[in-house]
Please model this.
Amino acid sequence: MTGSKRRYRWHALVFPFFNVMLNGFNFVFHMLAGRYLPSEQYGQVNALLALFTLFSVVGLSIQLVVAKLSFQKADRVGLPQPKVISIFALLLCFFLLVFAPVMSNIFQTSLLAYLWLILILLFHIITSYHRGIMQGSGHLLKLNFSFYTEVFGKLLIVVFFVICTEKGLSVERLMLAVMIGMLVSAIHGYWMNRTNEYLNDLPNKTLKIHWHKIKKDLGQSFILNCCILFFLSLDMLVVHHYIPEQSGEYAVALKYGQLVYFAAYSIITALVPRINLSLSYDGEKFNKKNNTLTVILIGYILCIFMGLGAYLVCYFTWLPQSISLLFSSHYSVASSILVPTGIVYAIFSIVVFLAYLHMLAGNSRLKIWLMIGAVCMVVAFTMNHRNLWQILIDEMIVYSFLSIGMFVDWLVYIRKLGRQSQQV
Model:
């Protein structure tokens, strides 16, 4: 048991580091795509990937449920068999295939590119099942390796098209590369969970899951994942719809700004166990741990501002020049919006952390805040979308008010929990 705890702590320590490195390899993928595709086609690719991001909430929700049930060993028996997940994924993808002509027309892409998108979703759902088992069993490095097989799989295909074919890259070939990467990761997950001995420690299969025990957390988590993915995808879809001629430049700027968010999300991943521990105490111990939560929150916000400061220093030294070097001179216009993009994702990182605090503490008002934020964002984009600066200002305003509201509500809710813990 001691060895298992030591292994888990070591994995939790190095997981954020490898997770941040993973975003670097994803950045290389987009760098190659932006360099070898015209601006409008690169915008189409990012619009399709933004649509996949919205669809991926299905796989992420499955991963969350499987991770919980794999961690709670007595409930392992209730896990559906992989073939059940595969059948569900096939039915969902068949349903989406019916709308292929309509979706292809909306996103102005070929039917083949949309078909690859559907297959990406299919393999992502299957992969998420196996990733959930790895995550719940505490094998975070195996989970890291699953992500790396996906990224390196698509990178190898992209490099092959660039070097070994005359046509080079196209929207269809890039989506094919992403699909192959997801397929490789699905095969890796199936093989690892089939052959590794740690699955032998999971409980026997005669017990049943009591779904009502996790229904509330699952509902909160589903809404949280939906809204986070919605926020991450909506602006790209709006730009592609209203000002498609600038979608390529905006996609490049997003790759830089989202580095702030991805680094912050890695910190959140590392802090979640500590937050859960602080919320598990009662009485006076809870009040002491409440102070720990306050320190964690303040420390996280300081880390975000320090990261944003480092981002701004990079902007005033070498970041704008790197666009022409890494992507193409056609995207140099994106340098004019690098600063507001970084600010947007710094504020959004605070929103996500506050949302995780509410979810882990069980505050049912979280879904209300997220719904309000989503509605306000749609209204803001609908009324104000003439240029990229207006879209970014919309995001700054909505995220700022949302973070303030969620912070005040967090203070109210945590005091309520403190009073309840003293009465127990």
